[in-house]
Amino acid sequence: MKVKPFRGIRPPREIVTEVASRPYDVLNSEEARAEAEGNPKSLYHIIKPEIDFPVGTDEHDARVYEKAVENFAAFQNNGWLVQDEKEHYYIYAQTMDGRTQYGIVIGAYVDDYMTSKIKKHELTRKDKEEDRMKHVRINNANIEPVFLAFHDNEVLDRVIREVTAGEPEYDFVAPDGFGHTFWVVEKPEQIETITEEFAKMPATYIADGHHRSAAAALVGHEKATQNPAHTGDEEYNFFLAVAFPASHLRIIDYNRLVRDLNGLSPAEFLEKLEYNFIVEDKGTEVYHPSQLHNFALYLEGHWYSLTARPGTYNDEDPIGVLDVTISSNLILQDLLAIGDLRTSKRIDFVGGIRGLEELKRRVDSGEMAAALALYPVSMKQLMDIADTGNIMPPKTTWFEPKLRSGLIIHSLND
Questions:
Q1: I need a surface site. Which of 123, 174, 363, 366 has the fewest CB within 10 A?
Q2: Residue 333 DSSP symbol
């Protein structure tokens, strides 16, 4: 793997909490407008610039992208974002529920993405890729980072320990209660060690941000092909990423809600489930899946345990063994006739960060007919799938906490 340090563009320490925001894709325009209200320094003015237009303005309007450029320039002119004088790596720690994960902020190599050394586990949608490509292209910068994982490395762990023993550049708790701490890697020998250790790695893995990584790499590749004097050393050959040791990361469940039972009564639905699952009524108390191949169903005020019967899955198949595959094939498709999870209007998805009570609430309200909670995928499963060139079904992984946007930006200029 090829990585490089870079001259990060970032906020002064005293205003970092005003600038930092949630990622562009975890909230809608109305939510961004509300969170940025009264705060001209909020990064939402760059990553969700439709908030500076009347309500209802299409976020893909050309004027919206142009506003992002205008706001990005204004942030720099106002001193709300300042570029470091020297190239650095950075260490970014996130704390959630008393647990901290440490990532290294790097310039990831475009060609490593194009040659699949930066490995994917999800398909991307062309419309979302194009949206982010426009944003990267017009700003000439990676405003938000990609979330990568790598196999644990003791040398890099040592560097992380050394750097984080010092005074952090930023240290704050966001409104959602998650802690964010950020250090600048200053020592030349530490910078050199990080570069060398990544060079020994055969691969890194996209944990979150498939559309951002595709957009960043495609814009970099585009710039390379358009530059007759291209050397391969230009800054556009790299994109912004935060890479974490795999053991630091935790994937949480990503659950399903269905609007109807495909014409079946609840009793008929439960009866048909018996063919492929051992069904147990768990009563009215919230039931959490206990292990792989065990699911929680909420239907008509009751929680049910569904355990896939032997023979309904293949433990030797990296895709077939996944609970998202089992539930998609045997429940959503076979019983409920829900085929394409990316386009069907009869299904919705809820990250486990909201808790199973959110599933119960939406079914009890009458909005949804039933909810299905899944046991979370492991990092090993994710990496095994990526290593075998396979793709996970849609809506399989949910990483939390999300990377906070606005702590660091990567310019494609130098």
A1: 366
A2: I
Q: And the tokens for 6?
A: 């870079």
Looking only at the bridges linking them, the beta strands covering 179-185 and 141-142 are unpaired
Helices marked H in 234-322? 266-273
From the list 331, 332, 326, 361, the residue with the least C-alpha distance to 344 is 332
Q: Which residues, 6 or more positions from 87, have their beta carbon under 8 angstroms from its beta carbon?
A: 4, 5, 6, 7, 191
Rounded CA gap, 399 and 252, in Å? 6
Please give the full DSSP string across 113-137, using - where no structure is assigned.
Answer: HHTTSEE--S---HHHHHHHHHHHH
What local confidence, expressed as pLDDT, does residue 124 receive? 79
Q: What is the separation of C-alpha 345 from the centre of its chain, rounded to a whole number of angstroms?
A: 23
294-319 per-position pLDDT tens digit: 999 999 999 999 999 999 988 888 88
- Reading the block at residue 281, the tokens are 């009524």
Which parts of the chain have pLDDT scores under 50? none
Residue 369: name the closest of 269, 224, 220 by CA. 269
Residue 403 DSSP label: P
Tokens at 275, concatenated = 């063919």
What pLDDT sits at residue 7? 98
For residue 348, count other CB atoms closer than 10 A to its CB.
16
Q: Where are the alpha helices (DSSP H) in 24-102?
A: 29-36, 44-47, 62-77
Token output for 308: 């896939």
CB 266 within 8 A of CB 300: yes
Q: What are phi and psi of 55, to 5 degrees?
A: -55, 135
Q: What is the distance between the terminal CA atoms of the chain, rounded to a whole angstrom? A: 21
pLDDT, position 126: 84
- Whether a cis peptide bond, with omega within 30° of 0, leads into 401 is yes
Read off the pLDDT of residues 140-180 as tens digits, 9 standing for 90 and up.
999 999 999 999 999 999 999 999 999 999 999 999 999 99
- What the block records as the tokens of 48 is 């969700």
